[in-house]
Amino acid sequence: MQDVYHLKGQHSSLIIGAPNGGVPTVLYWGEALPDALDHAQLGLLQSLPHPAGFLDSIPPLSLVPEMGRGFHGQAGLLGQRKRRDWAGQMQLDQVDVDEDGTHRLRCVDPQAGLQLDIRVSLNQQTEVVRLSAELTNTGDTPYQLDHLGLSVRLPWEADELLTFHGRWIQEFLTERQPWPLSPVLRENRRGRTSHASFPAMIAGEPHFSENRGQVWGLHLGYSGNHRLVAEKLLDGNRHIQLGEWLYPGEIELSAGQTYRTPETFGTWSGRGLNGLSQQFHAFVREQILDLDVTKRPRPVHLNTWEGIYFDHKPEQLKAMVRHAADVGVERFILDDGWFGRRDDDHAGLGDWFVDERKHPGGLGYLIEAVHQQGMTFGLWFEPEMVNPDSDLYRAHPDWILQVEGYDQPLGRHQYVLDIAKPEVFAYLLERLDSFLTEYAIDYIKWDMNRDLVQPGSNGIAGVHEQTQALYRLLAELRQRHPSVEIETCASGGGRIDFEILRHTQRIWTSDCIDARERQRIQYGYSLFLPPEINGSHISANPSHTTGRSLNLGYRLITAMFGHMGLELNVTEMSDAEKAQVRALVDLYKQHRSLLHTGTFWRLDTADPALQAYGVVSGDGRSALFAATTLELQKQMLLPPLRLQGLKPGTDYELSFWIPDGALGPRTGQSELEQAGGGRFSAELLMQAGVQLPILNPESALLLALKEV
Ligand code: GLA
Prior knowledge:
By secondary structure, the chain is α+β, with helices and mostly antiparallel strands. Among the domains are: 64-288, alpha-galactosidase from lactobacil brevis (Beta-galactosidase, Chain A, domain 5, Distorted Sandwich); 382-508, Aldolase class I (TIM Barrel), CATH 3.20.20.70; 601-707, Golgi alpha-mannosidase II (Immunoglobulin-like), CATH 2.60.40.1180. Helix content is 20%, strand content 30%. The strands form seven sheets. Strands 5, 6, 7, 8, 10, 11, 13, 14, 18 and 19 form a ten-stranded antiparallel beta sheet that branches. The protein has an eight-stranded parallel barrel with strand order 20-21-22-25-28-29-30-31. Helix 7 packs parallel to helix 8 and helix 10 (552-560) packs parallel to helix 11. 51% of the residues are buried. Bound molecules: alpha-D-galactopyranose. Alpha-D-galactopyranose binds at residues 305, 335-336, 380, 447, 449, 489, 491-492, 508, 511.
């Protein structure tokens, strides 16, 4: 049997092999190698000496590293069968290659009664690797699975790590550090993807930047619990292992039963973080999302939440609808507060019936008003939750995730429904389906506002089943109502990952719509996710979550590099403010097709006070960049901005768009500023750069480029 497999993209190669006949390992992942490789040469080059003070041969760092072969690091498989079969040795048994190039590697351990089926593929257009595994109990007694993680071995050059952190209103915080000798662990037990730990890690050559250095990025597409660990071994080898974090006893495989891991997605780039994120963006667009922004441009939203909260009054809502249409809004979303007895967040969740005290006769009047203005309508739900103060809970107190005999802690005054229970699933499906059938709703904001504690289902830990049930519920609804778009929200960005994106078309990235904070949040977001699904709203002043006031132009430019919306009470705006917002919404509409289909670039800047990024159209003929200041810079001037992604050999017409209030104290303008731009070659724009005007802190301007 051939024991080395070369998966090849246009720019990268992934070589896996099982030189010792066990579970395959990553032998190479980096710049593309020629098709015809002499595997024996590779084997010889990678053959290892036997260091003293160690086992007589170095244990393999395979895709599922095995304790039973002397691997003393983070084992890939942990489990047992009545205290036996806990340290087996798998043998590679069979390899099949599908038409699309997916390699299916079957490994077996007959003694332990286990079969491991690993799938690995490399998408040629986007260079993204997909990796997953199935473990089947081939024995005749139950097998208790504690952990199944897939390890990707990385080269020694990968010696700096970027990890993700965060909390509510602070999603996608990034931290960089030299890859330490102790393992770096990101474990999530919150029962949803979580604000605290976007399930991804990036490793790279030391000091990798937006444009330079080799980087390897890995993401676990999963909306339940996860465990990611980056580990350097005693021998200097290193790996990142990704898998689901399981509660004790959560997975028991009966004879013949199979457990499937979530999918891991990875990519290598030799051109720094931009290459990495561009490959992930292209992959998400082509392989994950069910969304075609060229056929259905993303409408400008107005979401009622921060504008009116729970205070729904038909006359006021109708006025909001008129004012929204007047400033160019195209989709009106009624947020929390329309159902049950939902006057605040203490009651009503679970009672998915219109509150006729607030909306006499149902939502028809509002939807009609929305349609009259040429807009479409969206509605908020939080299906997985129930308040103790609700008719649903009073009727079915046994429908929640819990461990009987203990007090179940509340989160935002609510419990979590056990949606894997068929009767709960059926209730939610019927309720949601009936709204989508009765009303012309073209959009759902699907919220999920608490972490899980004691998530017991019939006494057994149930996050895995809960997560699968969620995917089934979303899939069933989408199948019944394929044109309805769904937004994934979990108190903002608590449930963002590639798997939820198979079922949803927009992300509520954060409850923080303070533009200054959003700049940072959207930086981390952009490493893995494309702009057109980033729900990004213009907030009121001061911001409701931070108390900070920011100028409108800055708020607009920040919202513009996502799927833009408004989240404020439009009826309270002055005519002058409305005129300004209208102009900004128009500007966004002019550029949205570029912004939502082009290539996203973050720019390396020589001053941390300056954050800059932009989008270049696929054909390279137009581009839009934003230069934003996070704080007052230490020097008088901002550094020249070196653009990226332009078409060499092309001249561009450069123009600035500088919102009111953005310019800082100055006694004169540069010639470039006076001229409002000019005609420049791509090479000069990219290599020499553009000197920026003097900007206030927390300000932004746009640079628009058109091929001449
Ligand atoms: C969560 C969401 C908000 C809003 C509220 C409604 O916090 O993140 O956007 O929908 O719920 O209760």
